[in-house]
Design a protein that fits this description.
- It is a single chain.
- The chain is α+β, with helices and mostly antiparallel strands.
- It has two domains: 1-32; 33-181, Immunoglobulin-like.
- It is built from three helices and nine strands; from the N terminus they run H-H-E-E-E-E-H-E-E-E-E-E.
- The protein has helices at residues 2-22, 25-29, 90-107, and strands at residues 38-43, 46-53, 57-60, 70-77, 111-118, 124-131, 148-155, 161-169, 172-181.
- The strands form two sheets. It has a five-stranded antiparallel β-sheet. Strands 6-5-8-9 form a four-stranded antiparallel β-sheet, with no helix packed on it.
- A hairpin with a 2-residue loop joins strand 1 and strand 2.
- It is globular.
Length: 182
């Protein structure tokens, strides 16, 4: 009888952990959703606060207000995102920039789809689209600006909480950033 109790307990434990894994972000992409830190680009006494990592995928930091349509500017850096740009030698950085610039040129004019994933419920929904466009002359002076592009889009984030905003082109993820929505 005692073994039956142990077996039932183990069955319940396994059953609960499977349900929990199916309902968590770990089942989605192996990580927990947390608000990304702010990264700031400083140029000529002007600051550009970004949410996310400069050199990868960011959104111009703003007040994110639930249920309100707002316009956001996302920045996408192309090229091998796993390369430590600080450690590249001069000839390697030139080759890397050429490759990243080609990738950017191929992406310009394409539609990007934005999906949100809420950190508590893991609710996922498509909320906006936008077109990838070149940076302004001023923005091209950002770090690695020649390998970057932007998307300006209007979206409404459904409710308060921490939300992951994921961008994809033709179903392929190109990056994500996580923000706190008030």
């Amino acid at each position: 009888m005692r073994y039956i109790g142990v077996i039932l307990f183990l069955f319940m434990l396994v059953g609960c952990s499977e349900q929990q894994n199916l309902g968590t972000i770990r089942a989605y992409n192996g990580e927990v959703i947390r608000e990304d830190p702010t990264d700031t680009i400083v140029m000529a006494d002007k600051e550009y606060p970004m949410r996310g990592e400069v050199g990868d995928f960011t959104v111009f930091d703003a007040d994110f207000i639930a249920g309100k349509a707002q316009t956001y500017t996302f920045y996408i850096w192309f090229g091998n995102k796993n390369v430590d740009k600080q450690l590249l030698h001069q000839d390697e950085i030139v080759e890397w920039n050429q490759s990243a610039n080609e990738e950017k040129q191929n992406a310009l004019g394409k539609q990007i789809k934005f999906t949100t994933i809420e950190s508590e419920t893991f609710e996922k929904q498509n909320i906006a689209t936008g077109i990838i466009e070149p940076l302004s002359e001023e923005e091209e002076r950002f770090p690695l600006g020649t390998t970057a592009a932007k998307v300006v889009t209007t979206m409404t984030i459904p409710s308060n909480g921490v939300w992951k905003l994921e961008g994809s082109i033709d179903g392929q993820s190109i990056g994500d950033v996580t923000v706190k929505v008030n």
